[in-house]
Amino acid sequence: MNSLSVNANATVDGQQAYGDSRFPYVFACDDANATLEDTARWVAENREELLRLMRVHGAVALRGFPTSTVEAFDRVVSELQLENFPYKKSLSNAVRVNRTERVFSANEAPPEVRIFFHHEMAQTPLYPKYIFFYCEIPAQSGGATPLCRSDLLFQKLAERCPEFAKTCEEKGLCYTNVMPDSDDAKSGMGRSWQSTLGVQTREEAESRLGELRYSYEWMDNGCLKATTPPLPAVMEVAPGQKTFFNQLIAAYCGWSDDRNDPSKAIRHGDGTPLDSEAVNVAIELSEELCYDHQWVQGDVVLLDNTVAMHARRPFSGTRKILASLAEMRTHALTVS
Ligand SMILES: [Fe+2]
């Protein structure tokens, strides 16, 4: 086995610099003879450093490694030695298809559907600490994965809209979502209530919703309208470093399909509506801070989901971006 030749100072188009932090941090493998075994060993040996870099920089990109298959991506993720967070256990509203036990399609929504900035599953009481992406097939055009440093966004939001930032922090957010009674692959949020909740019957659904402290209403057409309990909107990831850990932007801009109206999707934890001007400032800031990851086949992007937000640009052609989640965490709003 060779030791792997890896450039730790590699760059990608559009890479950002904040002080001495780079976004994303990039490792490039420039060894044409490298094997998957070499890569697996390199990941295992550098596991702690990779986790630290995700935490500090938000995102770490691996380019040029011999990771040309889904199984290779699964192997890289496995070498990080983190607890798998399987899709079937998640309360995610996206329709996804498993490819290996820990790897699934990122979102089966059609190419023209834009997915706005969010922290993965921050709109549910269960979320993954990490999300990893892999490019099996890049789109013909478009299809970048925008990334945004959420700590910088919250810092700027608190400067420009201090009242709103404070209200988000104190009151948290409630999300309302209408789930179909069978998967709707046309929608970015089309996962059925049975699949979302991991149940077969209405009785089981009601018991699961009770455990999660959701309020709910059955619709005439078999759909289920569910509202979360108040969830935190801001997370202190390190002393003094706060991130805008929520799905406010995605819900406000994008939770729209045959069943859902974005203006009704999100409220503060006490039921009061959001200040739309401040929400627009948050959206504007996310665009200003955005880095678009332009995929190359075999790319792996590792995110600390509590630090970086992600999104999806529309695209044309066949695009296969896969994802894997790790370390399930729970959150709940504690009102002082
Ligand atoms: Fe996502």
Account of the 3D structure:
The protein is of the alpha+beta class. The protein folds into two domains: 6-111 and 121-143 and 292-328, Clavaminate synthase-like (Double-stranded beta-helix); 152-285, Clavaminate synthase-like (Double-stranded beta-helix, 4-Layer Sandwich). Helices cover 26% and strands 28% of the residues. The protein contains nine helices and 21 strands. The protein has helices spanning 36-45, 47-57, 70-79, 150-160, 162-171, 193-197, 202-212, 248-254, 276-288, and strands at residues 6-7, 16-18, 21-23, 25-29, 59-63, 104-105, 115-118, 126-137, 141-142, 145-149, 173-179, 215-218, 224-227, 235-238, 241-243, 266-268, 291-293, 300-304, 308-312, 315-316, 320-330. The strands form six sheets. The chain has a seven-stranded mixed β-sheet with strand order 1-4-5-18-8-21-6, with helices on one face. Helix 1 runs parallel beside helix 3 (70-79) and helix 4 (150-160) packs across helix 5. The N and C termini lie far apart (56 Å). 46% of the residues are buried. The model has no long low-confidence stretch (mean pLDDT 93). The chain binds fe (ii) ion (FE2). This is Taurine catabolism dioxygenase TauD, TfdA family. Its cofactor is Fe(2+). It comes from Stieleria varia.
Ligand list: fe (ii) ion
- Count the strands? 21
- The whole-number mean of residue pLDDT values reads 93
CATH architectural designation of the largest domain = 4-Layer Sandwich
Percent strand: 25-35%
Structural class: alpha+beta
DSSP helical segment count: 9
Per CATH, the superfamily of the largest domain is Clavaminate synthase-like
Radius of gyration: 20 Å
What's the CATH C level of the largest domain?
Answer: Alpha Beta
The dominant shape is: globular
What proportion of the residues is helical, as a percent range?
25-40%
Strand order of the largest sheet: 1-4-5-18-8-21-6
**CATH topology label of the largest domain:** Double-stranded beta-helix
Largest sheet: 7 strands, mixed
Number of domains: 2
Distance between the termini: 56 Å
> What string, H for helix and E for strand, traces the elements in order?
EEEEHHEHEEEEEHHEHHEEEEHEHEEEEE
Uncertain ranges: none
Protein name: Taurine catabolism dioxygenase TauD, TfdA family
Keywords: Dioxygenase, Oxidoreductase
Pfam families: TauD
Cofactor: Fe(2+)
